[in-house]
Amino acid sequence: MPIVPFENNNQAHARLAELQKRTRPHLPKPSVLEVAHFHTKFLKNAKEHGHWIFVHNDKWVGYADAMIPWWWSATDALMVRIGVHPQYRHQGIGTQLLKHLVNFAQNKNCISLGGDVFDLNPEELRFVDKYGFELKQKDTCSIYDTTNPISKTLKDTYQHVCALGVEIIRGDELIRRRPDQWQKMWWAFETETVADVPCPSERKPMSFEKWQARLSSPSFSPREFFFAFDEDRLVGLSGGVIFPGEPSKGGVHFTGVLKSHRRKNIATALKVAATQHLIDAGVQEIVTNNEKDNPMLKLNEAFGFVPAYACMFFQANVAALHQQLTD
C-alpha cells in the first residue's frame, strides 16, 4: 500500500518538515523540533488523531493529517490536512489520501471533515470544489515588510495610552513579577477574549492543562508577548512568534483586549510594542490572518500589513464524500 502510518521518530520529523515546505512554500518552513513537538506533545490533548504518508518509489510525495481539535465544541468533526509534492500532482494522490481520511472519519464516527485551503494554489480550490466542500470561513492573510518603520502616529498612540496609566510589559517581566500567577492569569484572560475571534466551529473553553501544553512548543515564547495592565488588572495582550525554521519570518499569534477596555487604543499600543519587538529581533516579514469581519483586519492595515492571499476553511459531510468517492 502506498499510504503508510507516519512513524514518530527524528528522521520522520525531518522528512515531514521538508515535505510540508514543498507542498505549501508560502508558509514558513516548520523546524524539525516543531514537527516533533506537534506529534509527541501537542496531539496528546486531541480526542482522536491520525497521520499518514504517501510513498512512491521510496519517496515521500504526500501526507495526510486528521484530528478532533479540543478547542471545538463539535466532537464529531475532523480537522484535516492533505499535502502533495508539486512534482506528483494530477496523479490521483490527493484523492487517495482523501479516501483514507474519509475511512478514518467513519471509523471514528465523525460526520464532517474540513481543513484550510489557500487561494494561491488553484489546484486546491478545484479539488475541494470537485468533492463538494463548502466554504465556512475566509481569512485575509496579510504581510508586513519590516523595512517600513512603524509610523510616528502609531508610536504616539502608544505613548498616549501609557500616559493615561496603562502599563505595558513584556512576557519575561510578567513572569518575574508574578512567578506563581502568570500562567493562570494569561489563561483566564485568553479564555475570555478569544471567544470573540471568528472560528469555523463553535469554540469551547480550553482547560488550563490543555492551554499549558503550548508553553513547551519550540515556536512559542512568552518573551514575544506584551501585556497591558490597568493597575493590577490584566486588560490586554498581543504577541507573536519567530519561526524557528525560518527566523527571518514572524507571525502574529493573538491580540485581545477586555470588553471593558476596548476603544481606548490599547490594542494599537500593544501591537506597536509587539511589532517593534519583532523588528528589533531581526524579523524581516510578519504575517497575520484575520476573518473579514474581525476589526483587527483594519488595525493591521493601519500598521502597513498588505493583504497577500486568503486562507479558506472548507468542510464536507463524511457520508456524502464516501458516496462520491466510491461511485
Walk me through the structure.
This protein has 327 residues and is of the alpha+beta class. The protein folds into 2 domains: 3-138 and 312-326, Gcn5-related N-acetyltransferase (GNAT) (Aminopeptidase), CATH 3.40.630; 149-303, Aminopeptidase (3-Layer(aba) Sandwich), CATH 3.40.630.30. It contains 11 helices and 12 strands. The protein has helices at 10-23, 32-40, 93-107, 122-130, 152-163, 171-177, 182-193, 208-212, 266-280, 296-303, 318-326; strands at 3-5, 49-56, 59-67, 77-84, 112-118, 134-145, 166-170, 225-230, 233-242, 249-257, 285-291, 306-317. The radius of gyration is 21 Å and the shape is globular. The model has no long low-confidence stretch (mean pLDDT 93).
Helices and strands in order:
Elements (H helix, E strand, L loop, with lengths): L2 E3 L4 H14 L8 H9 L8 E8 L2 E9 L9 E8 L8 H15 L4 E7 L3 H9 L3 E12 L6 H12 L2 E5 H7 L4 H12 L14 H5 L12 E6 L2 E10 L6 E9 L8 H15 L4 E7 L4 H8 L2 E12 H9 L1
Parallel strand pairs: 4-5, 10-11
Antiparallel strand pairs: 1-2, 2-3, 3-4, 5-12, 6-11, 6-12, 7-8, 8-9, 9-10
Helix pairs in contact: 1-2, 3-11, 5-9
Cα distance spanning the termini: 21 Å
Strands of the widest sheet, in order across it, are 1-2-3-4-5-12-6-11-10-9-8-7
Q: What is the count of β-strands?
A: 12
- Superfamily at the CATH H level of the largest domain? Gcn5-related N-acetyltransferase (GNAT)
Which spans of ≥5 residues are poorly predicted at pLDDT below 50?
none
> What fraction of the residues are assigned to beta strands by DSSP?
25-35%
Largest sheet: 12 strands, mixed
What structural class do the secondary elements suggest?
Answer: alpha+beta
- CATH architect. name of the largest domain: 3-Layer(aba) Sandwich
Mean pLDDT: 93
Number of helices: 11
CA-based shape: globular
- The total domain count is 2
Per CATH, the class of the largest domain reads Alpha Beta
CATH topology of the largest domain: Aminopeptidase
User: In percent, how helical is the residue content?
Assistant: 25-40%
